[in-house]
Design goal:
Elements lengths: L3 H6 L1 H10 L6 H33 L5 H34 L18 E6 L12 H8 L2 E2 L1 H6 L6 E2 L1 H18 L2 H11 L8 E3 L4 E3 H6 L10 E3 L4 E3 L4 H4 L7 E3 L5 E10 L18 E11 L4 H18 L4 E5 L11 E9 L4 E10 L3 H6 L2 E3 L5 E3 L1 E9 H11 L7 E2 L2 H4 L8 E2 L1
Parallel strand pairs: 4-9, 8-14
Antiparallel strand pairs: 1-11, 2-3, 5-7, 6-7, 9-10, 10-16, 11-12, 12-13, 13-16, 14-15, 17-18
Helix pairs in contact: 3-4, 8-11
Length: 433
């Protein structure tokens, strides 16, 4: 969330950001409640001071009937004011949690995905001498993707992976962890974008269930219809490893010398894909259950933007090592998430669809989540401030598998294994057939 003091002093700026993000929130009502809240708190504090003063007087001797009466009246008045404050606080909390983050100066202003801007491209889409198959045609031909039995067993938008697809996925996992824990590679990429830290990422396998209160603090509770909610436990299945990586330092004060803290987490994730009926219904691009390697980092505010630039450089490095044509896209105001200050996506070329599709996203949240989670750091001078947080995709396994299968397919339906993955394949398998 945003600091209420900042909202007070920059109401027009906050309103403009909300408008550009298509976020309907009544900032004027929030400020009105804030004023009422502060005024009421002053009244309560003054009444309590009077009660304390009266109590001191009563200790010096037996209280008079008038003093007893006055004490009761003050108690009743405080109680009434506190109840009034409780109601205001409830509405206030709901409103301030609805205020979106601001947007960076280089974020394109646009109503929806039509306003997104391509920043740069890598590689040229392959020109096949045959009509390329899509990943499901290849998956069925090779016997490595199955969706009919999974539909009967689990429902629509689930799948089985077999043989070569499974080996590719685990090769990708090893490739990601090898890369992000390699200080030499991180140093090279950090230097490229002007990031001051060469610190590698710590590998994590996080829980896949988060309490409702935690998801609300992460601002990932809504839209609830897109989540798998466990009513009996008041908890949710996570939609990404960042949902349980982000709260790792909740209510902590981190020593500045330990920043940045960088994690690479691997987990299964779950999404209902509400509102996407008929969209990408076939294949494994949009599933209810999928596996994902996710980056999460905590930095001092002055390094938050360069941290995102490093993360995007890592994403590009990973895809370039696989030699998959892709483009880097600046996501516009109307298409970005509510907590995001700046969002950058990578879209890989999918020959089976003859277009680029999103495979990676990078979200820079500034201190928006950290305020909710109460994650601070202590600077050398002793001052405590909120950390800045970034999260981003390393690999969404289903999507990157699609890109590999479709870009590396051969005329006979076999698929060549990218060179970067071969050392992680059992027996150095070079082709899936």
């Amino acid at each position: 969330m945003l600091d209420i003091k900042f909202i007070r002093e920059n109401a027009d700026k906050v309103k403009e950001a909300a408008k550009n993000k298509n976020n309907k929130v009544d900032i004027d009502q929030l400020l009105k409640l804030d004023e009422e809240k502060r005024g009421l708190q002053v009244e309560i504090d003054n009444l309590r001071a009077k009660r304390n003063e009266l109590a001191k007087q009563n200790k010096s001797g037996k209280p008079t009937d008038e003093q007893i009466k006055q004490g009761k009246e003050l108690k009743t008045e405080v109680s009434g004011k506190e109840e009034e404050l409780k109601k205001i606080n409830k509405e206030y909390a709901k409103l301030i949690y609805s205020v979106p983050n601001l947007i960076s100066k280089d974020t394109p202003i646009g109503p929806d995905e039509s306003g997104n801007k391509v920043i740069r491209k890598f590689g040229e889409p392959a020109k096949f001498k045959f009509k390329p198959k899509d990943h499901m045609e290849l998956g069925i031909l090779l016997g490595i993707i199955e969706t009919e039995k999974s539909a009967k067993i689990s429902g629509a938008r689930f799948n089985y992976l077999f043989s070569g697809a499974v080996l590719l996925q685990f090769a990708l996992i090893q490739f990601v962890f090898d890369t992000l824990t390699n200080e030499k590679i991180i140093k090279q990429l950090a230097k490229k974008v002007g990031n001051p830290s060469n610190k590698p990422f710590t590998p994590v396998i996080p829980p896949v269930i988060a309490k409702s209160e935690i998801m609300k603090k992460m601002d990932r509770f809504e839209p609830l219809e897109d989540r798998y909610y466990l009513e009996q436990d008041d908890s949710l299945l996570i939609g990404s490893a960042e949902h349980t990586l982000g709260p790792l330092h909740m209510n902590e004060v981190i020593d500045e010398k330990n920043l940045p803290i960088r994690y690479i987490g691997y987990s299964t994730a779950f999404r209902r894909e509400a509102g996407t009926y008929g969209k990408d219904a076939t294949g494994i691009l949009r599933r209810h259950q999928f596996d994902k390697a996710e980056m999460e980092s905590f930095t001092a505010p002055e390094h938050g933007l360069s941290e995102q630039n490093l993360i995007v450089a890592i994403q590009e490095y990973l895809v370039q090592q696989l030699e998959i044509p892709h483009q880097v896209v600046a996501i516009c105001s109307g298409d970005m998430g509510k907590p995001d200050f700046r969002q950058i996506d990578i879209e890989c070329w999918m020959p089976g669809q003859n277009k680029y599709r999103e495979t990676h996203t990078s979200d820079y949240m500034t201190d928006y989540q950290a305020r909710r989670l109460n994650i601070k750091y202590q600077a050398k001078g002793g001052k405590k401030e909120y950390v800045h947080m970034n999260d981003a995709t390393a690999f969404a396994m289903g999507r990157i598998l699609i890109a590999i299968l479709e870009n590396y397919q051969q005329e006979d339906g076999s698929v060549v294994v990218p060179k970067a993955l071969r050392k992680y394949m059992p027996g150095n398998i070079k082709i899936i057939k």
